[in-house]
Structure formats: structure tokens, C-alpha cells
Design goal:
- The protein starts with a strand and ends in a 23-residue tail after the last strand.
- With about 270 residues, the protein is α+β, with helices and mostly antiparallel strands.
- The strands form 2 sheets. Strands 1, 2, 3, 4 and 5 form a 5-stranded antiparallel β-sheet that branches.
- About 30% of the residues are buried.
- The protein has helices at about 50, 55-60, 65-80, 95-120, 150-180, 195-200, 220-225; strands at about 5-10, 30-35, 40-45, 85-90, 95, 120-130, 185-190, 205-215, 235-245.
- It is found in: Gas vesicle.
């Protein structure tokens, strides 16, 4: 008899009420809440053809598949977070059978319970700073070339100096902004800057940070970020959220291992 696989999105306390209409898990149905020992795992059954060990390892190299899975994962977590405090789990946390989900709750209890207490009423805001490319100079007349080699070098040095100045301004703004925002947040995390290929955003990512903020102080926090938007030429500041507190939930999946190892989970 084949074992069933269950994808686990997040852990919550038992709660009254219903999730928003229309939320769908990876199987196209609303997520199930598997209750055990005063905790609930939001989970859905998934096919072994996609989520058993070998196919899952292949899928984790497929950016389109990952993006679709991440959207479904985030939609479930966002729906949960709209009605209760949720501790998001890592992408592709998979258990064998509902008994494996219950073991996950048992073995993660020492992290889940304090995390739910610490994150209750808090949201995550993301802030990124980008050093943008220099504005293109007016095109020269067709076929025009620098008058001399010295003129060519002067132009090259000018472009490099302009880029270095933009990076310096972006670095200065990132440091001062992060210092100020950290003073208005309960916790902060500095993530590795994203490459343009991953982010799809123009410019080079200098600051990629997350901040844990009480929900009722969100408007104040966003206003603080907005005041820095136009402080430095060639530098772009972006704020996203509110999100479920992914960056502050800790790293718990089955047996404390990494995502993508369903043969090692419960």
C-alpha cells in the first residue's frame, strides 16, 4: 500500500472561524487543519510523483515549478495569518501520513509554542535598497567616435566614477535606514542581496532586510521608510508587506532537516 504524502504550510493554535473564501492549497482544495496536542498543522495531500524524494529534488531545480509552489504556499500562510498567528514552515516541508504530521508537531513543539507567543500580533515588512544604473547619456551622432584615445578614457572613467558614487550613496543610505528602522522594530534580519536574475528588479540590490513590527505600528513604520525614498540620487528604496513573519519563525521542518527530503521526514 502506497504511503500518502502531506505538505505542511504552517503551524497555528486551534482557532474558531474559517479561512477566507477562495484560499486553495496545492491540491486545489482548502488546507486541512490537523490538530494534535494543542497545535494545528495546516496541510494538504500531495502526489508522490511530485513530492517524493527523487522527483522533489528534480523539481527544486525547476524555477517555474518552484515559483508556482511558493505562490500556493504563501497564499495559504497569508490566509492563516489573516485570522490567527501562524508560524510558516519552509517551502516543501513534506511528511509521510498524518501520523508524520503529528510527529512533526511533537518534535517541533519546543520551537512552535514560544514562536507563536513571540509572533502573535506581529507582521514582517521587507525593505530593499537598489543602486540604479546611471541614466543613459544622449546618443552621439551616428558613427561619431571619441576624438582621441584620451577622450575615450575620460568617458570610461566618468562612467565608472558615476557608478561608484551611486554605490556609495546606496551604501550610506542602507546603513542609516537600517539603523533607524531597527530602532522601530522588535527584531530585524539582514538577508543576502538578491541578484537581478532572481529579483527581476532593475538596479543592484544593496540592502535586503526584514523587520518584525507590531501590526498596530505598521503605518508608522511604512511612513518612516517612505521618507527615505528620494534621499539619494540613483538610489531606489522599496518596502513590501505586511507578510507573515517568515524571517522570524525559525527553521523547523520535519526532523529539523532541510526542505526536499521527504524520505527523511516523519
Amino acid at each position: 500500500m502506497n504511503e500518502s504524502l502531506w505538505y505542511v504550510y504552517a503551524v497555528v493554535r486551534p482557532f474558531e472561524g474559517a479561512l477566507p473564501d477562495g484560499v486553495r492549497a496545492l491540491d486545489g482544495e482548502p488546507p486541512r487543519l490537523i490538530e494534535h496536542g494543542g497545535l494545528c498543522a495546516a496541510a494538504s495531500p500531495v502526489p508522490a510523483a511530485d513530492f517524493d524524494a527523487a522527483p522533489l529534488r528534480r523539481h527544486l531545480e525547476d524555477l517555474d515549478w518552484l515559483a508556482a509552489t511558493a505562490r500556493a504556499h504563501q497564499a495559504v500562510v497569508a490566509a492563516l495569518s489573516s485570522v490567527t498567528c501562524a508560524v510558516p514552515l519552509r517551502l516543501a516541508t513534506v511528511c509521510r501520513e498524518t501520523s508524520g504530521v503529528r510527529r512533526l508537531l511533537d518534535e517541533g513543539r519546543a520551537m512552535f509554542v514560544p514562536a507563536l507567543e513571540r509572533l502573535d500580533g506581529r507582521v514582517e515588512w521587507g525593505v530593499k535598497v537598489y543602486a540604479e544604473a546611471a541614466s543613459p547619456k544622449p546618443a552621439a551622432a551616428p558613427g561619431a567616435k571619441p576624438a582621441t584615445g584620451r577622450e575615450y578614457l575620460r568617458r570610461r572613467l566618468g562612467h565608472r566614477q558615476e557608478r561608484e558614487d551611486t554605490w556609495r550613496r546606496a551604501g550610506d543610505l542602507s546603513r542609516s535606514l537600517h539603523r533607524e528602522l531597527s530602532g522601530h522594530a522588535e527584531a530585524q534580519r539582514l538577508h543576502r542581496p538578491q541578484s537581478t536574475r532572481v529579483s527581476g528588479q532593475p538596479g543592484e540590490n544593496v540592502l535586503n532586510a526584514a523587520y518584525l513590527v507590531p501590526r498596530e505600528r505598521s503605518a508608522e513604520f511604512v511612513s518612516l521608510v517612505e521618507r527615505h525614498r528620494s534621499q539619494a540620487a540613483g538610489v531606489r528604496v522599496e518596502v513590501t508587506g505586511p507578510w507573515a513573519p517568515y524571517s522570524f519563525a525559525g527553521t523547523v521542518d520535519a526532523r529539523g532537516g532541510g526542505a526536499g527530503e521527504p524520505d527523511a521526514v516523519h
